[in-house]
């Protein structure tokens, strides 16, 4: 049989178009051809196990070789091979129809970014790097004749009988002049280890098998030990710290998905963490851009997802709308939440120890994903300034007695910087209040989310008010001063502070509290925080506003009596100024000339 023919296709110059579109991804030709060789090998094994192929299966290693002198790359398999008729059907028609469809779909798009980077273009991707391609093949079918197919990248092809005694196919690529980079062995090795590292059939290159045919995720979890998971993790991400824990995914209905997701120790820099999940389809590496397949917050995890059901040969927008992808997204979210719930249930103490590393992830998930929130609300932990951990329900019980305001709302207090806010924390504690620690930038979002979801529950930063007023209980401490004296003290302080943006009030507090307390109302502070983070919509005017601080003078503090009894106005003012500066100092707000003056005044007072 010798035949020349013309591949039936309307687009005469299909190859230049393929080349243009896939410009940035030429290297995938090797992934496509090796995958075809794997498919052909697995088909043969299946036929053999079904008894439909009686011959010897033999060594099925797929061999990839580079011949620099001939400028060829050969991919040889010992799979089912093809008869001449099959070549015509599968290569000339099927493979070509895939390529045609691709071109038809994308020729008007003009922008290769619109195309998912890794279109499963199949056999014809060979022409991205070849000026001529040969297939030399012998079918497994008894009495078959070996066939040679040749095509130079035009739509013309030639098939003729050839000499080949071993079953299987050799695909020989004559590398084009503009693609000679692929004749470098190091390059081929790099591509193979990127895409083919976990293929299920052995791949040999340069005398070495380059792949692990049974990667961990394909095995059953009950035959694996912790060490196996940790070792696999370190193979995937060399030089990384050990993961905290992992989830072995395995589902076959309503879609197929296997994989392992690892919880890394999170660093504060989110961006740095991304692109650590690799997507595979039947053990072939597809991409590490999983943005459309897993929910955003899960991208902080590392690991492998392998699913033949994720459509890879379509555009991004289609991928997002794909029903399977949506299901995968919610399946993974559920699995991750279930795993965390299980860990929490099994060992609350151990879970709390890991909280530093996973807390950020859980909070991010709760903020960004409602379904995750519903599950995570029962294991999300809250740490107080004494280092104790609580779930929300337990915490509510913990503060139930002391921290209810007059409208029966629970008011939780928090500090964002335990060192800087220590004075306030201690004041709150003296009142028997508990203080939570919320020190990450994500916490301001987390707090808002909590308040919107949890009824009769609000959060207040510990310096939002004086300790007496943090939780409005409608109880009053009596002032030791008459109204007249209070007015006098207020005027002394106003003139000592001499700043119209500081609102001075007199408040009867316990004598143990500081004589002067500076607070920033919760609402104002949140507005400013939000604005500083670039949010807050139309509230840009806030930026121009001076810092509104309240100055509460403790009318029951002994210092106030001392001020009232002082011999002259200057001493009164100095004492008031001193107390005010001390309050500023405790907030870390005393700087520059004010600080210098304070030190000078302190020296003067101490020698008096
Ligand atoms: N090495 C091979 N051995 C036997 N048959 C092959 C080989 N390579 C390709 N074929 C046949 O040619 C057909 C077309 O291959 P092509 O790679 O274009 O598409 P595909 O593998 O069906 O799909 P995909 O686009 O996912 O690669 C295959 O379905 C297969 O029947």
TrEMBL record:
- Give yes or no: UniProt keyword Nucleotide-binding: yes
Q: Does the keyword ATP-binding apply?
A: yes
Q: Which residues bind ATP?
A: 32, 36, 77, 82, 97-98, 316
Per UniProt, residues of the Histidine kinase/HSP90-like ATPase domain are 25-165
Keyword terms, alphabetized: ATP-binding, Chaperone, Cytoplasm, Nucleotide-binding, Stress response
- Show the GO MF annotations: ATP binding; ATP hydrolysis activity; ATP-dependent protein folding chaperone; unfolded protein binding
InterPro entries reported in the protein's UniProt record:
HATPase_C_sf (IPR036890), HATPase_dom (IPR003594), Heat_shock_protein_90_CS (IPR019805), HSP90_C (IPR037196), Hsp90_fam (IPR001404), Hsp90_N (IPR020575), Ribosomal_Su5_D2-typ_SF (IPR020568)
Family according to the record: Belongs to the heat shock protein 90 family.
* PANTHER family reported in the protein's UniProt record: HEAT SHOCK PROTEIN 90 FAMILY MEMBER
Question: What protein is this chain from?
Answer: Chaperone protein HtpG
Q: Which species is this UniProt entry from?
A: Mucilaginibacter arboris
